[in-house]
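Hi F.,

I've been meaning to write this up properly since the lab meeting, where we talked about keeping a consistent format for the predictions we share between groups. The idea is simple: the sequence comes first, exactly as it goes in, then the structure tokens exactly as they come out, then a line or two of notes. No screenshots and no reformatting. I'm using this chain as the first example so we have something concrete to point to.
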Amino acid sequence: MLRHVARRSVAGLLVLLATVTATFWLFLSGPFDRARVMCGVNCTPLRYHQIRASLSADRPFLSQLGEYLSGLFVGRDVPIGKISVHCAAPCLGVSYAQRRSVTALILGGLPVTASIAIGAALLSVTVGLWLGAVAATHRNRVVDRLILTVTMGATAVPFAVVVVLAYLLFVIRWNILSGDGYHPLFSDGSFWSNLASWTSSLLPAWLLLGLFGAAGYGRFSRGLIVESLGEDYVQTAVAKGLSERAVLRRHAMRAAYPPIVTIFTLDLAGLLSGTIFIEQIFGLSGIGYLAFNSIGERDLPVLAGTTLFGAALVVLGNLLADLLLARLDPRVKLQ
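Output, unedited:
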């Protein structure tokens, strides 16, 4: 077990190292010129070369990358124009626009993104499993065909289109859902009042992400449950006189849990790295909102930092999914 965890951790670190190298080259050393971005429109050649020298952009690539990597562990001082900003470890750089540590900006948006991701992921898997169970127990009937048609149609439409249409209809036209931005759960005032405001601010994101994701879980869990219902041990349980609900809950559903948990873990890791369309349209200032705004501001350190944060979450999600799968499914052995 420990050997497997160590091997997977080393592989994950190698993936992160490759991601850091590629991201650093793309955003901070490659086709994008940091010095030109910081110098602005009315940039003189002298000022441009001064900024380029202060950023160490005229040094070899490996030297710049080594300084960036060392900042992840011990921190570093980052020059921004005529000033130098100290960036504590793990240093992902300093925002050009806000003059703040990228790590601090990401941690500031993490509660918003985490609230969206956890609520939406739980709604997706709950509704999806229920749809899959209903469709599997009514196989080839009207209910089954209806669920398959709806879920197939939902997965065929691009999510960005769904979000824009939902915002125009439910927020702008009918004013059913709130689009006033994020309300913190723990702030001044009554807890129950804060809870109601927090829930109403996140409800549109939960419904859109949750129900859209439930379509995929529904189709996948239906196939798993249908396959489980045809197994010999399930047929034996039916022959012993167990009710349909008991057979579904104790046998068929349990066989579907391991792959569902694996997909859920990976989906949650992806959502935690930022839900750009949802956060931008509904004014939720999370990590996706931060990343999207940094594109317009040409804030390259923020773009690089949010990319690396998302990559780290995906690597951790893969490791956690492997461990959970081995724990839940006795047929899986950690070699």
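Notes:
The two ends are 8 Å apart (CA to CA).
The first helix runs from residue 2 to 29.

If this format works for you, I'll send the rest the same way.

G.
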